Amino acid sequence: MEPLTWTGSLSGLNIIFTAVLVLLALGIVAQILISFVPQTDARAVAGDGTMASNQGASGFINMIVNYLFYALVGITLIYLVLGVVMGTGAGILGGMARQFLPVWTALIVTFVLSITFKRKLGLYGKLFDSTVGMIGFAIVMFWVFTGVFGGVFDLLVTHDSLSQVSGMKNKLPGTPLRGAEEGDYQWFLLGGDNLARDVFSRLIKGSWVVVKIAPFATLFAFMVGITLGLPAGYYSGRLDTILSFLANLILAFPVILLFYLLVTPEIVLTGIPNYMALFLFIFPLVFLAILLNSRFYTQPSFRTPLLIVVLGVGAWLYLSMVSSDGTIVETPTYSIPGIPAALDLFDIGSGILVVFVSVVFVNSPTVFRIVRGLALDIKTRDYVAAAQTRGEGPWYIMLWEILPNARGPLIVDFCLRIGYTTILLGTLGFFGLGLESESPDWGSTINAGRRLLSLYPHAAIAPALSLLSLVLGLNLLADGLREESLRD
Amino acid sequence: MGLFILRRLGVMLLTALCLTFIVFWLTNLYPNLEKLAKTQGNFRMSDEAVSSYLGDRGYLQPMPVKFGQWLGVMPGWVTEKDDGKTFGRCFSEGTPEDERPTRCGILQGDWGFSTVFKDEVGSTLLTRLALTGKLMFWVLMLMVPSALIVGVLAGMREGSKLDRSLSTFSIATTATPEYVSGVIFIAVLASSKFGLSPILAEWGWIDSKTLFFGSATSAMDDANFWNFFLPVLTISLYGMGYIARMTRASMTEVMTAQYIRTARLKGVKFSDIVLKHALRNALIAPFTVIMLQIPWLLNGVVIVETLFNYKGFGWLLVQAASNNDIELLLAVSVVSVVVVLVTQLISDIGYVYLNPRIRIS
Description:
A: mainly alpha, two-stranded antiparallel ribbon, 18 helices
């Protein structure tokens, strides 16, 4: 069988696509240059006495750039739609477009539903008023859906991400699978890596590792940061001094050194990551307990059952997270028993647990500093003074007066921080720390691919571009959210 | 001001002590020591042999005592074997009795012995630091001016096309970690089979096989544009976006100030407004950011030196950590922690010094 080209029978479109792209770039440069020239607003008086202002040269160029941009988006859509229809007939891109069909469907459904009901959806709905925010959201959701469909349901992948196929070592993108059987997918869409595994399938499996860890790690870091940062900012004084000192202590560590110290097999043997997990994972529970108690403590008949249910479920989840195989800490010399394996809801592999804990540990001091700063600022507001006069408790003021009013910057930072966590996960993979070496996550794949980078770059470039696009999407999303949250 | 600096110095010393103790504790945990004994002795050592090896070399003393000896405030360990041989932390068997020092540690200038490089830690560290110093110098020379120019150009007319293009550029660079941009640069510019180099070679524009070198090993002795630019660019790009965004934010704030409007109403030329009135006030905030960015560059240095095989400080860190070279790793952490803390101190002092609105009595 012939190797696939990038665009297959659609290659006639390539020249148009390139032309539009070059023209668009030129147009943007022209736009920038012309913005230095002062605008002469020529006003023409028509015969009937009305006056119309002329857009001038800059308006003309703006118009052209807009049309070029729409043309570019249109051609890209043609590639995708025809790719979905024609499959590998439209080359590698077509093949990938068809593999991603469930993702496209999910994206379209999400966007149609969100745009229809955007006025009822609060800040999330307002996101759909900003172009930048929508682009960012689309990229992020693309990877989320890819991770979920590919990682959980095994939908998008073409081959097994771990099996090695003889004769496919370092093969270029679009190489036909050697000795393909009837039911097999016939090509390695993005080529084979140095162990003859399919790069495309590993890419999709790798996105699940990121989508699974990064948001939760960030959420846990936020729980720790909020639970400690609010009292530090609100009470100030000695508590603040001690907590800030500790936060600065962790922040003064170069991240990579910390990773090298924490994420080694020898440290895992001592059980330190397990103790850190015990400590760090308790914060969401503490946070929930304080949050609900401070709100409902005046109605004990409602509060007590609520707390029992919430904390019961929370404690179960907590114990499931920290214990595996019936033990919480397992070292050669002693072990601390956890809940029995039958009650254990899910097991986090020890590699993932270490990575998770160290990422939370690195992120929480920064969140702490942000929350503390916001609390210091907001506690001087009138509504806080009003609540104090009403006789509200300090935790009620912190969690139900200060925190909701700090939500704008916190949501924006949450998006940025997921991106940063993704970068950290990639760093860990790049140095081969924590996750197993055959793990398909992007950092490990880049690490495996970089040795042959100058000869066979495709194995490292594909995950590198994916990571770049996901982080860029998160940054754009954060930018859109910032714009929209400033508006109200 | 003097009191302020003194207090900051005090806190800094305390932080440095705490941090080095944490590193010391983590590297001296028993599994690490066991691995050390097995790599230094042999891999099939029994548990008794391991503990006697460690016990002879003072590794099994209580943690604070070991830390004190490493710092040089407590007398070093001395072991007398049954056969009459005596050796200690500060001297070997052959040293005459009266030349044996009691204390040797950081305070005495003794950084210990590296098990990987079979050399004194102090001298190893100095050569590697010099190489990284060269890298960092060029990174700063590239990063700071370009970030400031991008930030000022974007911030002087908020919302213009130029602003939007440059802001998108800075967002894109902050979203590109070093291991991504480095991989892309090598693939596009330094690969003999892929990207630009084959095309340029075919046209006869370049003599060598590739445009840039994918490895910076040769830059350690003799750095030139073709073997040194890619690592420098890779590190600078990631830090640049952040500084540029901060500069832009501070520039837009200054450009809306009253005195800028007054200057405009007086009819001052726009370029004069930007260069003489706005720039000086707009550069206060970026100064802090640049200083605080230096510790972040340390991460970039580790990644880039690994990727481009440039054997500097970052490479040393990776070698020390992955080979469990305890004394070298400790020295590396001390240096990086000191770098972080000193830059923080400089940024604090500089901020107070530059900004006339802040006075600390």
